[in-house]
Structures are given as structure tokens and as C-alpha cells.
Amino acid sequence: MNVDKKQYLHPHRMGDGLKLMEFGSSADGTMMGLAVLLADGNGRGGGDLHSDHPIIGSWAGDRIVIAGDYADDGNHVDPEMITVELIAKARKDRMLEDDEETGDFNLYQVAMYSFEDVSARVRDALAGDYCGEQMRPSIGG
Fold it and tell me: I want to staple 136 with a disulfide (CB 3.0 to 4.6 A). Which of 1, 15, 96, 100 is the partner?
């Protein structure tokens, strides 16, 4: 999750499982995607990603958190992230009862309701490069 840009990389959309040890040990899925997002100075020589996609390096220097559905409520959640729209979506999904004004949200919940999923853009950046050809065929949109 990128707290500053309000974006996230979804492990399933990168061909991995959702749990930390499922995606954390992958070499060509979520962890490759995270490397692409955090790369600073790509395109200067051998070993770089052969792409000029604007997503490359776009997270460098930002606050990045690995947060799952069991994350602690309130951690890394800025107060302005709790919007009227987020509360309405939570009520619709019955995460909040109608009589509750607000609820306690963890970063994963906030992200799923209101952050942008950049997984497809990361896959696009990888697709034209030789490493993209080696990515698991299970990675889909």
C-alpha cells in the first residue's frame, strides 16, 4: 500500500497468494512489482527494466506499508482517509451498521474501498521486457 499516493499492488493480480509468506517469497510476482514501483534511476544500464513506463519508480521515497486484512485498526490510516464515501461503502457491505456514525478501519480496508489498484499498470511495464516474458502465466487482469 502506498499511503502517500493512495495506491496498492494486489498480490492476486500479480499471480501470488494474499498472505505475507505467499507473496513475500515470489521472485516474479508481487515482489517484482514492488521493485518496479520503488526503482530509482531505471534505464541506465544492464539489469534495468527495458521500459519507460511512467509507473516505474513512481513509489520511490513514498510511505509504503504491507498491510493485510488482519492489520490493526488505525495504523497508518490518516484521519482524512475516512471519508463519507468510504463509510457509505462500508455500510453497503455491512461492515458498518446503519446506526454507527463511523467505524474503526485498518489500512487494508481503507485501501480496498478507496485506493487505486496499480497492478495492471505494473504488469504493463513488465510485459515488454524480457523479465515480463518469464512471469508466471497465471498473472492476469
Answer: 15
